[in-house]
């Protein structure tokens, strides 16, 4: 005994190392088992956290393996017959899609008994069917009684025993068959729904190749700052930064981005994404247990265990529903006996119908199964939602408030001008002070200043910075070489000096920054930024969803207005020159004035606003750690068009939940009405119970099957109409072109997808993603298979061959969204859009959409 105490004490003194174990628990039926499982596991020593995912019948336990093993946890669950088994993390559950042999056996016996009208002794086959099919139900009911849980198994067992006691063997056999078959179908449906979670968990490979030695090692053994090699076609095993090589990476599984993303030295890559066509040498930045995809799965799991307001309301109602119906059933059965009615059998049959209807499983499942499917669908789209309550709030949003820098705009500042006002300080000295101090900041403006200093051959030195302070919404302070330097917007000037902010010649769309030294303004600089591709479309889609779009920014009014003009005045309100606290006040005002509000930001300077909004949405996987702490939804990419997709998904989920609830209530009510009208049909009660459960699951799974949540961006080549429907172009003979690759139509010769990463009013030419990414004004068109490519020039937003006449832009016309407008003429009409060419353009099989909203693909140029 003393040795055991010493051993236990030594284990406790060791540093705790928790691990996560996953269990398949077949005994989970609905939310009732959640409290049972938590009551069993949470008191156990060494168990830190327990999450129960009802739809997939999964239990996730975080525990100390030195104090309690996974097998001991499974044994604790199996003491109450919950049928728990350990599942390796990411392992796919193997499910036999065929029913068990005994189900087929008693099903055949029941079919034979249906011919009793032709030969009465055949009716005894129904009793044989009951004898074969009832034992599993009876054993489960005994287990439920031991757990003191009044569940579906107990109610069904009572119904079968009652039917047999009344001598109605066919009714008893029908109950057993319907219940068992529906359970089998429900298991298949649950497994199908949960397969999305399995695919998320199995995204990352288990092995990695060390770049220096070419040794294959376990991914979990690779340390931070190791160099790993990722060949073409391979899956990236660990998060990291590219140090050598160039390629395109398919990030669809992580971010939902349809197009491959070009990668070069300095680019971030994520585990679970696929290297397409090149070699990459990657320096790892995370351990295997802390990958972005691992955190993503963890968030999805945690979201499954959270309960929305609707779910809590249903659980409260159900708590009283079952006892009330059971008491009512008892009264219906006993009352005829007490009153000595002439037909007590009818009352007893009515009581059995009520007993079967006392189980509200369909109603209980109506909400969590829908949220389960919706959260998985959101993860597949690159949206991490923190729970069903967030989806519920998102479905009711009336206002979308956008931060500007890094959200509406790229957050990639360029220094346009840098002025020095003190003749005693050289530009190089000032740039040295500014870049050294700003190198300690993560603000996008800081990186622009550092890069500008380097372009002027000035390198920063962070070691010379002795003190560093951030003033949110204003700027930064740093002490370098004994000098106190303030850098920021006009508010930092007011803080650091008593002199008035000078009037600098206004430049449209620029942000102005100031440098203050010893209370004196010694420098000023201007920066410019541009809006993200797809921002205008996202705001337009939100408007079509009757959601008001608003900009909140700490930047100047002129910079905010310039961004508004870039978006063609799509925003309905602009609030500029705001401090972080001011953003919170505006959010509260919008909530009271308009309605539920969502805030979209980068999760850095707008944390309080994100938390204050009904739904806070933070952007970008790179800021994942900060973003997930401050927001309710995290975008795994910087694509703002995911936001209307999230709203549509939330609203669709809300609709499905309403239908599920109505379906559950109507079917129960119909059974009650029939029973009290003199038609107490036991088989109908069973079908209404387990059948409705199955319908609720299948209906919720429609969220997983929907390929289109909202109108796609540029996808398959086709007419404007077919593009907006996300489909392929119908050929001249009416036949559809098939999509051989995601978002790309397979024409007679495969046409390279039209892709633009350019800002509005920029030249939008067709070309490969790599070429467009490297040269925004390059036009690379590919010809038929095996044919050479030709580089052609861009003019006024149109691609033309150098052998053709130049595109002429007539007076008063302009290029819009990469298409030439009415005033543009070209000898190569396939390269331009205009009213006079609409019919001709519509007939071209290689035209990506109409002139007003999508880019035009010029005619393929062949050798």
From TrEMBL:
Membrane-topology annotation of the record: Multi-pass membrane protein
Main location: membrane
UniProt KW Glycosyltransferase keyword: no
Keywords noted in UniProt: ATP-binding, Cadmium, Membrane, Metal-binding, Nucleotide-binding, Translocase, Transmembrane, Transmembrane helix
GO cellular component: membrane
Catalytic reactions on record: Zn(2+)(in) + ATP + H2O = Zn(2+)(out) + ADP + phosphate + H(+); Cd(2+)(in) + ATP + H2O = Cd(2+)(out) + ADP + phosphate + H(+)
Keyword DNA repair: no
Subcellular location as annotated: Membrane
Membrane-crossing residue ranges in chain numbering: 97-115, 121-139, 320-339, 351-376, 657-677, 683-704
Pfam family, one: Hydrolase
Gene Ontology MF: a single term: P-type zinc transporter activity
SUPFAM superfamilies: Calcium ATPase, transduction domain A, Calcium ATPase, transmembrane domain M, HAD-like, HMA, heavy metal-associated domain
Ranges of residues in domain HMA: 19-85
NCBIfam families associated with the record: ATPase-IB2_Cd, ATPase-IB_hvy, ATPase_P-type
Record protein name field: Heavy metal ATPase 2
Organism: Rhynchospora pubera
